[in-house]
Specification:
alpha/beta; 14 helices; five-stranded mixed β-sheet
Length: about 300
């Protein structure tokens, strides 16, 4: 109902529950206004208490302005230091440009959001540039699923199943401990992939190797988190649910209705999202990464204090 007009709400209730369940216009109007107030409060709430390990960014397009083409809704969700999922923010954007993403992320920071350890996104240049500008000390993981699609787009249809399996062999079932050993193993496997397919599909090989550092960044984090932080497809799947709701409604009467609907679906879906398990070993690794990435000067001060002056 959060994307519908008052009249639409009345019709939907009557269709779903029968005419005896109809509500008065004043009741429906009051319900809709309360929902609008809840959404407004959510979009302006303080984020000072939201401490993230991981921040996922993605967008999806909806028709929200009369006579205009579909425009993106930008979404940020994350996993906190407690391992819990949280929907952080959403906003409209005229395009998924650098300026749109930078403005969206800067707004989250203004409301108190602190830098995450890792930003996970697809390969959109505007998004990448904005994330690297606003969270310049955070690491960035490129979505493995999006990159797989890019690689397969450069391979004939008849060979795609084989190449797809070989692509995932680069990243799956790595047994080395998190850090450089795990990254080196993925690099070794990527070279095996390149040696196997360079002659036949050089463009696909270049597509993989060109962004390999961005694809293997997740391997520096706790092993039990790898399956959750190496792609951004959770939001993409949820956007699919939002688009199905839009088809049922048949139209989105405006920007506010569009945002309310997206928020409603994501808010409800977010209650079923899985977070990550925070074991003592994982927490220590994340704390060490945080000190090295986000507070390097603190480490330098500790080292300096530990130096014993020469006699």
């Amino acid at each position: 109902m959060r994307g519908l007009s008052v009249r639409d709400v009345e019709a939907s209730l009557a269709e779903a529950l029968g005419p005896e369940a109809a509500l008065s216009k004043s009741t429906v109007s009051r319900v809709c206004e309360q929902i609008k107030d809840e959404f407004k409060a959510w979009t302006t709430r303080s984020l000072a208490d939201v401490a993230l390990e991981y921040l996922f960014l993605d967008g999806s397009h909806f028709k929200m302005h009369h006579g205009a083409r579909a425009e993106p809704v930008l979404v940020a969700w994350g996993i906190t230091t407690d391992g819990k999922p949280v929907l952080v923010g959403l906003a409209p954007g005229s395009a998924e440009s650098h300026d749109a993403w930078a403005d969206f992320l800067a707004g989250l920071v203004t409301r108190g959001l602190r830098a995450p350890l890792l930003v996970i996104s697809d390969g959109a240049e505007g998004l990448i540039g904005a994330a690297e500008r606003v969270f310049d000390r955070s690491l960035r993981q490129r979505c493995l699923i999006h990159r797989a699609r890019n690689v397969l787009a450069k391979v004939p249809a008849g060979a795609q199943d084989e190449v797809k399996a070989a692509y995932w062999q680069v990243f799956d079932d790595i047994e080395q401990p998190p850090g450089q050993q795990a990254v080196a193993e993925a690099q070794r496997r990527a070279q095996t992939f390149a040696d196997r397919y360079q002659r036949f599909y050089p463009a696909a090989v270049a597509c993989l190797l060109h962004t390999l550092p961005e694809l293997t960044c997740y391997l520096r984090f706790p092993t039990e988190h790898w399956s959750r932080i190496r792609h951004s497809n959770l939001i993409e799947r949820t956007f699919g649910e939002t688009r199905r709701r839009t088809k049922v409604i048949g139209r989105l009467p405006g920007e506010r209705s569009c945002l309310s609907l997206v928020w409603a679906v994501l808010d409800r879906a977010g209650r079923g999202w899985r977070g990550v398990i925070q074991t003592p070993v994982a927490v220590r690794l994340l704390q060490d990464l945080r000190r090295r990435l986000l507070h390097p000067h603190a480490i330098e001060e500790v080292v300096a204090e530990a130096v014993i002056p020469a006699a």
